[in-house]
Structures are given as C-alpha cells and as structure tokens.
Automatic annotation (TrEMBL):
This is tRNA uridine 5-carboxymethylaminomethyl modification enzyme GidA. It comes from the Bacteria. It holds the Pfam family FAD_oxidored. SUPFAM superfamilies: FAD/NAD(P)-binding domain (SSF51905). One of its GO terms (molecular function) is oxidoreductase activity. InterPro entries: FAD/NAD-bd_sf (IPR036188), HdrA-like (IPR039650). Keywords: 4Fe-4S, Iron, Iron-sulfur, Metal-binding, Oxidoreductase. The keyword Metal-binding applies. It comes from Novipirellula herctigrandis.
Length: 497
C-alpha cells in the first residue's frame, strides 16, 4: 500500500481528506482530480453521496448555530408547538459555552419586565467554577440530552451552513454539508434564525449588516497547565512566537484566561483561522518561555494540560434590525415598548493591552477590558424585540452576538445567558408568526400584545400545537426575581403557573 500525501504540512496542520488507495506492485493509481468541480463529482462518487442535497422539509423554524442563542431559540419554539431544525457545525452544543471553548455563562436572568425569561437557559447553563474550567463542567452531554428530549426539534450536529436560496426578500432554504461525511442537505422552513454569531445566514441571504471597520474585540484561545510530581520536558517551539516571561501576564491559578485574545484588526470571519493560529503560537510560545527560556527554573514540573483548538470569537458581523440599539440607548435607559431581554452586563469592550503590544504591534495577543458600568445590573436594560429580526429579509430572525446593536452596545448584550434569552423571545415570536402566517416584523406591528402574553409564560410552558393552549409542567416551581417598581427593589417569589 502506498500513502500519497501531498503538502500535508503546516502549523497545527489540518487537511480536508486523505485518500487511501491499495495498489499492487508496479501499478500506479490515478490521483484525484485537482480542479474543484470534477473533484466534487469524484468525491461524491467515492463517498457514495447523493447528487442533489437531501431535502429536509416541514420546518416552522430553522435555527442555524447551536450556541446559547440557538439552543434558546430552538427549545423555546419547540415548546410553543413549532417544528424546529437545529443546525450546529460542531459535534457538541453550547458554542463558546461548550467544553471546546470553556467560557462560563454570565448575565443575570429571570428579572425585569418578563421575569420568566431565562428559565429555559437555566436548564442547560453551566455552573463552571472557572473559565476555562474542566471539560465536564460545561455539560456537553446534558445540553444535547435536553435538546434531544424535545420531540419538536430535529438536531443536526456536524452540519455547517454554507449556502441558501432566497426569493423576493425571503429565505427559502439553507444548505449544509456534513463535516464528517460531506453529504449536503437542504433545509426548508417558514422562518429562519441566524445564531451563528458570524451572521453567516444573513450574509448568504443578502440581509443588511455591518461590521466595526477596525479595533473590534478579538478571538481567544484559553488554556490550562498544571504541576506534577516529577520534572517534565517540553519540546522547543521554533514555530511559535519567541517569548520571554515579561512578554505575557503570568498564567495565574494555572489558567490562561479570556485575555489571551488577538485579531483586533484582522477580519474576524475571513481571517478566523489565521487569528486562531496566531493565538496558538502565542500560547505555545508562552509555555516554551516557561519551560525552555527564562521561566525554566521555576517550571520544571509544569505540564500543558489543555489548549482550546477552537477559537472563541467575540465580535464579527452584526445584522441590522428595525432597531439598532446603541450605547446611548442603554445608558439613558431609552424606553422601547418592545423592550424585553434584560441586559445586565456592563458595557465591556476589549482592547490590546499596551504593555504587551509593543513586541507584536501587528497582532497583539493580550487584551484589557474597559467597562462602562452605567448599567442596571439588577433589573437589566430591556433589549427591544425589534433587534431580533432582519430589516430587509422578511422571515429572518437573529439572536446572540449578531443582533441589531452597535459595537458599543454589543459590549453589554453579548454575554451568553443574555444571548440565550434573545433566543427564548425568538421562539415565542415564531409561534405567533406560524399561527398568523405572518413575518417577524408583523409580530411587533400587529401582534405585540400576544407576544407580551407569551413572554409572561414560564419556560416549561408547552403548546401541543402552534395554536394550542398552554400546559405547564406542574412540577415547575421557579424562584423568580421580580421588580417592585414602587420600591425599586427586587423580590424573590416562588411561582408555579
Ligand atoms: C474567551 C471569551 C471569554 C468570554 N467571556 C464571557 C463570559 O465570561 N461570560 C459570558 O457569558 N460570555 C463571555 N464571552 C462572550 C460569549 O461567549 C459570546 O458572546 C457568546 O458565546 C455568543 O453566543 P452565541 O450563541 O451568539 O454564539 P456562539 O457561542 O459563538 O455560538 C454560535 C455557534 O454557531 C456555530 N456556527 C457558526 N457558524 C455556523 C454555520 N455556518 N453553520 C452551523 N453552525 C455554525 C458555532 O460553531 C457555534 O457553536 C466570552 C467570549 C470569549 C471568546
């Protein structure tokens, strides 16, 4: 057997496919075509894939992206009687909150105008003790089990959305490929929700969008290390950044935290792989400094225990809704009649930390967070519903970090429990769209009272069908926080409705 590998090199190398062919001595094997279309045909043939994508039909809502926002949207819509496809391009759910990236979920829930919002998120949110913590703390299996328990959700893990069909300002379908088999599928739905964080579906559907032209927040790859009983070696890393101990903050408590962040002025989508590689070169360069350079004496027993191989993105493109929320709106507590999701995080924006930026001015890899704390952390600023649908693609919702906000407002809305609650609202709005055969904008313009009623329901409420009545899990007793407008105080109450 001869193994034909060409150019399988590169830092933390990745390759799309390896073709094994068995040949007898003296024989040669025809290499795969090296031109895209014949190569695609060849792949289909050898992998036994269908020529046309598999049509997946009958969905009320197609949710793309299985982070907190996507899970919130899918579960909420399913419980409201909608038939949902949840498409996620990783083998696990949770996005940045999965064991692959290990960011702990922040943002206060169950408060403000609709204090039941957040109850769905609470069912699957991590209780991690550190960020990054241990893999188990992020509960990948629990997240998947909760989604699979919803009979109205078809979950498609390892499915990457890459194309879509639109007609007259409406999305008709989204196409995916299976990252393990390369099989293409086409998902048809009445409504779609972009929860990719990068707004991939919106871009493909020609939705209006924007991206901060420069000085965006970057992408992080967190890491952990430990000390063992014996002296250990670590190979020199000539391909990593050449670092000494003064070039990075000491990874205290055995972990490299959120501020191992780069890509501030790189394209967060097109250069995503390059940003990740730069982060990895920084992490390995730092550990090389600890083991082989001026940190060696103090780290003889140190071992590198985990490095996130998936980059954790913070900011990329944002879809434009009928409302584009600004910092000014949040700080001045501008009233919107459709304000709903309580945003309690400060306006937290990241910049390269000057102290460490000098050696690598082109792409600094350590950040600092600047907080504008003029946020009501208890009650929360109610983010309007109109930030959660596209202003020009009629049947497109969005939830998560790609909603209709400015760069500054993203500083408060982007934490995961807040993103998850946006999904919960989208799920409820989807029920109204299906029931009245209308679009997300009509929910605000014509059916806002109905949305308000749905937002008051506990997270465990289920509708047998879209038009059906409520049934609430009788055991669902939630300690919720309500806001007493007269005293301005928060009160806890037990509710079982
Ligand atoms: C290092 C770091 C630290 C942070 N600190 C905190 C913190 O302490 N607490 C907190 O709450 N937030 C924190 N954040 C912010 C928070 O993680 C993000 O804003 C949040 O994850 C956004 O949620 P989301 O669901 O919109 O997107 P994501 O979590 O990014 O999830 C989107 C999902 O969609 C999938 N996807 C993307 N494209 C496609 C496609 N084409 N097809 C199919 N699937 C696709 C992705 O794989 C991903 O799983 C931090 C972020 C980082 C990177």
């Amino acid at each position: 057997m001869e193994l034909g590998l060409h150019d399988l090199t590169g830092f933390d190398g990745r390759c799309d496919a390896i073709y094994f062919a068995s040949i007898d001595e003296g024989q040669t094997v025809e290499p795969p075509p090296n031109v895209s279309e014949p190569l695609a045909d060849w792949r289909r043939e050898v992998l036994g894939l269908t020529e046309a994508p598999i049509a997946r039909t009958g969905y009320d809502l197609v949710v793309v992206g299985g982070g907190y926002a996507g899970m919130g949207a899918a579960i909420s819509a399913a419980r409201m009687g909608c038939k949902v496809a949840l498409i996620q391009d990783r083998p696990v759910l949770g996005g940045n909150g999965s064991s692959e990236v290990r960011v702990w979920a922040m943002g206060n829930i169950r408060r403000g105008r609709y204090p039941h919002l957040g109850e769905i998120i609470e069912e699957f949110a991590d209780k991690a003790t550190k960020s990054p913590g241990r893999a188990e703390e992020f509960g990948d299996e629990q997240k998947e089990a909760i989604v699979r328990a919803e009979k109205n959700i078809d979950l498609f893990l390892n499915h990457h959305a890459f194309a879509c069909e639109n007609e007259n300002g409406k999305l008709i379908s989204v196409q995916t490929f299976d990252t393990r088999t390369s099989q293409h599928s086409e998902f048809f739905g009445k409504l779609f929700c972009d929860c990719t964080g990068h707004e991939t579906v919106g871009i493909l559907a020609e939705a209006d969008w924007e991206m901060e032209p420069k000085d965006r927040m970057g992408m992080s790859n967190m890491w952990t290390w430990a000390e063992v009983d014996q002296v250990t070696d670590f190979p020199k890393t000539p391909w990593a950044l050449e670092l000494q101990m003064a070039d990075f903050p000491y990874p205290r408590d055995h972990h490299g935290q959120w501020f191992w962040e780069s890509g501030f002025n790189k394209n967060a989508v097109a250069d995503a792989e390059g940003i990740r590689d730069h982060n990895l070169r920084a992490v390995y360069g730092a550990f090389n400094a600890m083991k082989n350079n001026d940190g060696a004496e103090k780290h003889r027993n140190a071992v590198l225990t985990w490095v996130a191989f998936i980059g954790g993105p913070r900011e990329s493109r944002r879809l434009l809704g009928d409302v584009i929320l600004s910092q000014e709106d949040v700080i001045t507590k501008r009233e919107f009649d459709d304000g709903c999701v309580p945003s309690t995080w400060s306006i937290d924006l990241h910049y390269p930390k000057k102290q460490y930026a000098e050696k690598f001015p082109d792409n600094p890899f350590i950040s600092i967070a600047i907080h504008d704390r003029r946020i009501d952390r208890e009650y929360g600023y109610p983010v309007p519903y109109r930030c959660f649908y596209s202003r020009n693609v009629d049947n497109l919702f969005m939830a998560g970090r790609n909603i209709g906000v400015t760069h500054q407002a993203l500083g408060t809305t982007r934490v995961m429990k807040t993103c998850g609650m946006m999904g919960e609202v989208v799920g409820r709005a989807a029920n109204i769209c299906v029931k009245h055969a209308c679009q997300p904008r009509d929910v605000y313009e014509t059916h806002i009272e109905e949305l308000i009623e749905l937002l008051k329901l506990p997270g465990t409420t289920r509708h047998k069908s879209v038009g059906g009545s409520d049934t609430v899990d009788a055991n669902a007793v939630s300690a919720i926080k309500t806001h007493d407008a007269s005293s301005g105080k928060l009160e806890y109450s037990s509710q079982s409705k």
